[in-house]
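In response to reviewer comment 3 from the previous cycle, which asked for concrete evidence that the modeling workflow produces usable outputs, we include below a single protein chain processed end to end. The sequence was submitted unchanged, and the resulting structure tokens are shown without manual editing.
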Amino acid sequence: MRDAFFRAIEGAARADDRVIFLTADLGYKLFDPFAAANPGRCLNLGVAEANMIGVAAGLALEGFRPFAYSIAPFATARCLEQIRNSLCGMGLPVVVCGVGAGYAYGVNGATHHGVDDLGLMRALPGMTVLSPCDPRETAALVLATLALDGPAYLRLGRGRDPVLPGTDGPVTIGRPTVLREGREIALVATGGVASEALAGAEMLARDGADPLVLSAHTVKPLGSLVEVLADREVHTVLTVEEHGPYGGLHEALCADAMTERWRARILRASAPDRFVHDPASQGALRRRSGIDAASLAAALGEARC
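The workflow returned the following structure tokens.
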């Protein structure tokens, strides 16, 4: 996703000279092509995320469209007050980009695990929250943020995220992407962990099930997610998120479902409600959390019985 993000903002910058990129002391070589093509529009502000958000706000007030980029917990929790007051409070069109969502920086330990960022950003008034599942959704959502009038949070994986089936069509904020058609039971995932949901669905299909798989790339507002599930007569849903159990996709879907006539059993697969202090790879931490393909297939398969 990270590479797709940079290709997308490079294209956006060629088309719109208001696009400007800010980072807080990350990955210099990654930014070289953008910086070379757009002199003066790539700013490294050092290890000072709160200041980065303040600078982004000032640039937005001057008519620019800033993308402020850092590791997910540093782009959100470290500068939450500045996002709340300077971006949301003034409704400024700044895209806060959190790279390495979930356990992507698994071996770096709990300080680098992005497992509370969706909840923090969803709680902020006026904030659009986006969590693409693969490089194609990432590129499409980068461009979609430029049409927003207010702030957005774009939650990104790190690297080596697979391209998933179903993401080659139009991607619209507020409308989930169908990764696998199906009926009656569904896995609704947000972010890169959608690849695990899709693999888990194929395991279930071998046992005679026909699960629907959706990428809920827009976590706020959910938009037409409930409508898509209701249209396919889904009665059992497993939400899948590489995020803690509170404040994320599961709670958002349950809240929306309460306001609609559609009724379903909504189950949850998520990271645990604790910090993980024994570092491991992303894959290992997904397995420990029960958000790997085999665990998801087992959980939804048991719910069908």
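Residues 71 and 99 are 5 Å apart (CA to CA). We consider this sufficient to address the reviewer's concern, and the full set will be provided in the supplementary archive.
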